[in-house]
Amino acid sequence: MMKINIMTLFPQMCESVLSESIIGRARANGYIEIECINIRDYTLDKHNRVDDAPYGGGMGMLMQTQPICDCYKSICEKEGKSHLIYLSPCGELLTQEKVKKLSTLDNITLLCGHYEGIDQRVIDNIVDEQISIGDYVLTGGELPALVLSDAIARMIPGVLPNDEAKELESHYNGLLEYPQYTRPYDFNGDKVPEILISGHHENIDKWRREQSLLMTAKLRPDMLKKADLSEEDKKILKDNGYTEYTD
């Protein structure tokens, strides 16, 4: 069973999310173990501080080396070496491919920074890699850690009903997911595409593939440049005016 440790100053914030929905059920059913660990529990400061002013001056405070390193040391002493990821705007941009790779590991630890970040010596000495969920700045690393935990959990066998459920989702195979519809069939004159109520599963699959390609071309053309397109895929794109992907 995969184990994810989340090193944070706000464990209850993380627990409130990780106890709900699919990931909450996955934890309860034993498909994945996630532990939220309070970095503050490892400080040696009598006032329970984990931060201090940066050398050289500047605004804000930095998380100190000692509480973080001792927290991580405690994890490794109990569980062996854990792959340590620092959630940082300086990190590699998170992709589904990265999620797939991380989901094959047995034990990972997610480090949530706060304030103006963490002491560089933590990054230099114990962090294995840095990951960013986007080119913007958040208050802390908790939200990125929750995003990454959720994405990884969905890749663990048993968490979703079947493999097809995750393989058809957006980004899994390099394309956006096709449009989906449910009842009512007719909403204010806007009807569900007839193909979806035809009962002809082969034609439905073809329609969904076509819609997936066209939606990706329209909304995320950058993804198509990296997608593994068949000759039939290229023909669909060309017939719909997207000739730049047919070479």
Describe what this molecule looks like in 3D:
With 247 residues, the protein is α/β, with parallel strands linked by helices. The protein has helices at residues 11-18, 21-28, 65-79, 96-102, 120-125, 142-153, 163-167, 201-219, 221-224, 231-239; strands at 2-8, 32-38, 51-52, 62-63, 83-93, 107-112, 129-132, 186-187, 190-191. The protein has a five-stranded parallel β-sheet, with helices on both faces. Strands 3-4 form a two-stranded antiparallel ribbon. Strands 8-9 form a two-stranded antiparallel sheet. Strand 5 (83-93), helix 4 (96-102) and strand 6 form a beta-alpha-beta unit. Helix 1 (11-18) packs parallel to helix 6 (142-153).
Mean pLDDT: 93
Principal-axis shape: elongated
Beta-sheet strand percentage? 15-25%
Helix-and-strand structural type:
alpha/beta
Largest sheet: 5 strands, parallel
Helix amount: 25-40%
Q: Rg, please?
A: 22 Å
Q: Which stretches are low in confidence, meaning pLDDT under 50 for 5 or more residues running?
A: none
Strand order of the largest sheet: 2-1-6-5-7
The strand count comes to 9
* H and E string: EHHEEEHEHEHEHHEEHHH
Helices, by number, come to 10
